[in-house]
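Structure ticket #2291
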Amino acid sequence: MQPLAVGWIDVVGATTTEAANPIQAAGWIPTWIPDWSLDIFAVVVVLGLAWVASRLLVSLLGRRIARQFSRPSLTRAFIRGLRVGVFVLALLVILRIFGLQLGDIALSVTVFTAVVGVVLAPIGRVAKSSRVQ
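Resolution: structure written out below.
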């Protein structure tokens, strides 16, 4: 029997006549609540956890980072990078909730990068030849 992908959980043995969401099938949440609302709730929870985690990281590591860099602008940039990193991880989790896996993202980015390289390579060659003359 093929596994049925349901939101962010893969269920082996589920059929279309069963409850669409395994959490609803377990009886934790009533079946009249739509699946999309559970996904939205999961996204809000992930974003909330990412916000709390980023603030916690900044409070724990902020002073240590400030001691490493003499310039305040570098300290702010590094702390901003920490926050961005936490939210990028949260974005990957959110994409997983909606069924997009990391392999799909990597393949898309790889193909896009190859296309951009093929398109921009002749432009760079023309720019070099015009500078030489």
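Closing remark: Residues 14-19 have pLDDT under 50 and may be disordered.
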